[in-house]
Please model this.
Amino acid sequence: MFDGRKDHTLDAKGRVSVPERYRNILQSQDAREIFLTQSAVRDRLCITVWSPDEWKSFLERINAIAPSHPTRQYLDDIVLSTKEVCSFDTNGRILIPQHLRQFADLDGQARFVGRGKNFEIWNPAKHEALLQSHRDNTAIDESLHLFGV
Model:
């Protein structure tokens, strides 16, 4: 399970080191490459990172949806059309393609954020703003007890 968060430096070419803990999880799954896409969630302007197993599972789920269905078309346009396959170099780095760096507004720093089965790559300032908006949403307090919080 991917959890926690870690900030890493993004070099001028767009290379960034994936946190060792995340690499260890991927290596335990024999993953030699990962899949990067734009986040499908409208208010999450970040990169979603998929292991090969999770990517395969996602493809199976969306292939069960009729191609004419609006949700399928949305996922095709937002997720499938932005997919990039990234391999690790010998230093545990990946090269984030320019179009994904632009989408997530990555420049100099990248924040890796665990999301359970996947993880995300964020502009740290935008992630902090998202966290603050969550903190400001007092309506969520009414349902936190459902999760034992």
